[in-house]
């Protein structure tokens, strides 16, 4: 009901998608974000790709965690 009333939507981001977002934000913006922050980034990109968000809209993406807490999870994964 909340989604319908707010005219919102739901996006699912895989673990690999989160890691891709972490890499992308690190390479492009110099940020080492937490996986959940990377998921928000990837969800926004997905919504832009589908047209649910428009490129001329202003949106705010929040990342309240650091990727440093997840070093053991990302160690050994390809970052290039």
Automatic annotation (TrEMBL):
Pfam families: PALP
InterPro entries, per database record: TrpB-like_PALP, TrpB-like_PALP_sf
Span of domain Tryptophan synthase beta chain-like PALP: 2-65
Organism superkingdom: Eukaryota
Name used for this protein in its record: Tryptophan synthase beta chain-like PALP domain-containing protein
Organism of provenance: Tanacetum cinerariifolium
